[in-house]
């Protein structure tokens, strides 16, 4: 990790530790105030506990033009971003996406869409719906390794993280608490429960928290849709296509709508936010990830709406290409931050 980023975060954390004005703002400050000195692992843990709500910055009396020049949200964001790149497996891929995220995401979607268009020759004769374009076996052969790779990669990254922050053996109670905090986005409620100051220093809003919840639950609903369809196909012998009022379609359509709405709102908030409180150079990679995730939801909805038209093969290739790109890039995009946040929350529960 970059020593200068850690040194600046350490300097600011030591000042905050002496002040203690923001003690009740979020999970960061009780954890920060529990330490007397800060190792690199301590700073990595604090950085991944931080949700960048920015309330502490606007409440702080030591920000510029004070000589202390505190900007804790940015200092922790820089360490957090650097930790994601350093802990990624393989590391080079994590660094590359943060530098050229938009181009990599765009190239991956187009490249994989062309791949799916090229393998249409594997379509089974007499298949229905999407299987008339691409066989079920071909989809499984492509997506199963693409699904397993990010799980393997993220598992290595989380193991590295756990060792770096010096956490002990994980217990179920710590994991349950972490999932509970992540489910309601507790740390995005702000210091007084009024929300983030993400858009304007004088305005508290729950908008960012709700956008994150829409994206998270939208993604989970889409994943549940795929899981239910898998059970119906292999266990209940009920292959696709499924009607609108079937469980896979209800979960998938509602999840897709939440994904699109949440991603659009997150982009809007990012464009209005003060970039001086974000990680340096991370804007492009963040927009690339949010854009890719939103496109997955949007292309899925458009595909469902126009699935009986002549445009279906092209739309299917674009949707499957975006899904495959999302899977393979997950360990190197901000999608991985959800796993790091869970690990940070579990480690913090362990500390408590």
UniProtKB/TrEMBL annotation:
The chain crosses the membrane at residues 101-119, 139-162, 214-235, 247-267, 287-306, 312-332. Keywords: Membrane, Transmembrane, Transmembrane helix. The keyword Transmembrane applies. It comes from the Bacteria. InterPro entries: Citrate_utilization_prot_B, NarG-like_sf. The keyword Membrane applies. This is 4Fe-4S ferredoxin. It comes from Pseudosulfitobacter pseudonitzschiae.
């Amino acid at each position: 990790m970059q020593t200068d980023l850690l040194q600046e975060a350490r300097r600011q954390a030591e000042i905050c530790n002496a002040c203690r004005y923001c003690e009740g703002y979020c999970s960061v400050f009780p954890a920060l105030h529990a330490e007397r000195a800060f190792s690199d692992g301590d700073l990595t843990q604090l950085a991944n506990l931080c949700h960048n709500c920015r309330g502490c910055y606007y409440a702080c009396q030591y920000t510029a033009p004070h000589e202390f020049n505190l900007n804790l949200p940015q200092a922790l964001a820089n360490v957090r971003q650097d930790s994601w790149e350093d802990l990624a497996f393989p590391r080079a891929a994590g660094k590359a996406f943060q530098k050229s995220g938009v181009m990599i995401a765009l190239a991956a979607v187009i490249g994989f869409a062309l791949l799916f268009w090229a393998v249409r020759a594997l379509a089974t004769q007499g298949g229905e719906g999407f299987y008339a374009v691409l066989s079920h076996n071909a989809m499984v052969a492509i997506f199963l390794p693409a699904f397993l790779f990010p799980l393997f990669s993220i598992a290595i990254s989380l193991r590295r993280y756990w060792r770096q922050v010096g956490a002990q053996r994980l217990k179920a109670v710590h994991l349950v608490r972490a999932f509970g905090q992540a489910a309601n986005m507790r740390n995005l409620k702000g210091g007084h429960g009024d929300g983030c100051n993400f858009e304007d220093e004088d305005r508290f809003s729950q908008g960012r928290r709700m956008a994150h919840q829409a994206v998270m639950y939208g993604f989970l609903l889409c994943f549940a849709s795929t899981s239910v369809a898998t059970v119906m196909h292999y266990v209940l012998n009920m292959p696709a296509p499924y009607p609108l009022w079937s469980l896979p379609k209800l979960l998938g359509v509602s999840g897709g709508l939440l994904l699109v709405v949440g991603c659009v709102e997150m982009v809007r908030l990012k464009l209005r936010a003060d970039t001086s409180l974000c990680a340096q150079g991370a804007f492009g990679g963040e927009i690339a990830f949010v854009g890719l995730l939103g496109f997955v939801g949007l292309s899925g909805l458009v595909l469902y709406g126009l699935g009986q038209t002549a445009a279906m093969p092209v739309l299917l290739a674009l949707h499957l290409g975006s899904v495959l790109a999302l899977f393979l890039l997950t360990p190197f995009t901000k999608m991985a931050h959800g796993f790091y946040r869970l690990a940070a929350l579990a480690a913090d529960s362990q500390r408590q």
